[in-house]
Amino acid sequence: MNEAHYPQTLILLQSLGTALGLGLLVGLEREWKKNPMAGLRTFGLIGLFGGLAGAMSVAFGGWIIAGGLIACTAMAIMANLAAMRQNEPDIGLTTEFAMLAIFAIGCLAGTGQLAPAVACAGTVMVLLHYKDPLHGAVRKVDAKELKEIARLVLIGLVILPLLPNEKMGPLEVLNPFKVWLMVVLIVGMSLVAYLVGKFIGGAKSAAISGILGGMVSSTAVTASVSRRSRAEGSAGTVLAAIILTASCVVFARVMVEVMLTAPAHMGAMLPPLGLMLAWTAVVAGVVLWLAKRAGEKPGEEEAPSELKGAVMFGLLYVGVLYAVALGKEHFGDSGLYVVAAISGLTDVDAITLSTSGLVASGEVEPRTGWRVILIGGLANTVFKAGMAVVLGAGRFVKWTSAGFGAAAAGGVAILLLWPW
């Protein structure tokens, strides 16, 4: 064999070996479940068959893949007919579709697309193996939650792709796709937090309650928990820990948003925000430790998703975009700080996303960007502290005020002492 052909041969063998291995991987799970139709060897052969079809299609055309798919389908039908003649119980369609999926995955591997093939094979194996937990999770979903899931699908998979993904309007800062994407993210985070809380049996501790609530809206958590403190006066410290934990999660969420919208500037923006996250985690941890020491336990509370609140956030996001643009145009960086302090009173995400976008586009310096975001976070902290004092009672107000005061002091220190 010509030495020039060795690299191509090795690539082909690697592709076919991957196709075979992925088929064996899924076949292992079917063999372990003692599936009567196909097991380890059958799935391995199907994967190899798909790899060969994919490799041959490169040279001879896609009709080979189509013919292979028809052959796999025919074999699955024949196996089902044989099972029916032997009066065997219905074995369903899961294995049959898994066979077709492995053939297609083998074709991917055969054409050299190994990473997608591996990812798809892993997904197939997980879906097959976790049958009982997945079915159990579905049985826990009631009509209300199914409605929420359908709503998320509607706004995320139907409405979102139809919106234009381009800047328009005055100052050219309005992007309908990105604005509605914010709505989808808020609804999605809220629904995920609600379902996770339900599937693990509800929020059983202050840490879990705070984390799940902080994923959705720490401001909403503050309002609801503050009202609860009047009825649960003996659990004031642990309720304060819930709010402080939710506020800590806000800065973790802010850091994720910065990484997604301004990845090229993470090195300049994340360290001070990370320090703020660590400080608020310490504050929340101390209050939680005091609550555990006192033996306090809160009642359970769920955090369902709300489309109306998400739409209001989208409108706020649009307003912040225009306010930031006008502030930058007329007042420079000082205008950004004023806008951050105002918009951060009710929500930190809008100012974070808009400011990070300006940093990514080069309109704002990273050293200014993280300060704008932190000011928004501090404004939100002050607002929640006031809300807790007005709505709360007893030890809850004492520990919430102390916790928010310590968090705000740490944030101000970071603003003043961090080098420019």
UniProtKB/TrEMBL annotation:
Domain DUF4010: 184-392
Source superkingdom: Bacteria
Major localization class: membrane
Matches recorded under Pfam families: DUF4010, MgtC
Signal peptide start-end: none
Membrane topology: Multi-pass membrane protein
Keyword Mitochondrion: no
Family affiliation: Belongs to the MgtC/SapB family.
Protein name (Swiss-Prot/TrEMBL): MgtC/SapB family protein
Source organism (scientific name): Luteolibacter rhizosphaerae
Top-level taxonomy: Bacteria, Pseudomonadati, Verrucomicrobiota, Verrucomicrobiia, Verrucomicrobiales
